[in-house]
Amino acid sequence: MFAAIAGAHGQIARRLTRLLVAGGDEVVGLIRNPDHVGDVEADGARAIVLDLESANAEEVADAIQGTDAVVFAAGAGPGSGEVRKDTVDRAAAVLLADAAQAAGVRRYVLVSSYGVDAMRDGATPDGMDPVFVAYLRAKLAAEEELLGRALGGAFELAVLRPGGLTDEPGAGTVSLERSLPRGQVSRDDVAAVVAALLRAPALLPAEEDPVLELMAGEEPVEAAVTRSLTPAPAA
What we know:
By secondary structure, the chain is α/β, with parallel strands linked by helices. It has a single domain, classed as NAD(P)-binding Rossmann-like Domain (Rossmann fold). Helix content is 39%, strand content 21%. It has helices at 11-22, 37-42, 57-64, 82-103, 130-151, 187-199, 221-228; strands at 2-6, 26-31, 46-49, 69-72, 107-111, 156-162, 164-166, 173-177, 184-186, 211-216, 219-220. Strand 4 (69-72), helix 4 and strand 5 (107-111) form a beta-alpha-beta unit. Helix 1 (11-22) crosses helix 6. The longest helix has 22 residues, at 82-103. It is globular, with a radius of gyration of 16 Å. Residues 7-201 form the NAD(P)-binding domain. It comes from Quadrisphaera granulorum. It holds the Pfam family NAD_binding_10. This is Putative NAD(P)-binding protein.
């Protein structure tokens, strides 16, 4: 498999790159900062410096040409304001979708966030930091845009909503469901789930709901992903 990772210098993305490369897969990593090229190459990926806030779809399509799948693991990051939550967490994810369609890439995995459902219908939870509200709204908008495209047959889609992220060593076991109580999960295990989604023979059709919430749990990663991608029995 040949995968492109947007935000390849992020903590989950770097773990994912190393997992994929160790398994014999090829990775191209899209990064904004040229200072990060060495790290991404050390992880085993081919690094391409491309700012998704200023690039156009044609430039991104050229960068991901020939890949089997794309992963959006980019983010505006801590310290960024409400504007960049939109330009990165929403607009850059949509730009990657534009590029994937132009390049004929057939699988898209979006790393989203637990809690986005609280933003539906313009809701603003009491006491929540406005920047975090902007982040969740941007993630929800990206999910909805990509789901619409997947329903239209543009690509296979998986949306992963991890809980609170930790740097604990991966357990290799998770809880992966359509809906879960709030919890935490290690970045190692998030990367392992994304790798398993990329390597799966097929994702569920978009109409069967491609959104998966992810927390620490007791089910081995491969078994959890396989079960989650098994179509529901006909009524």
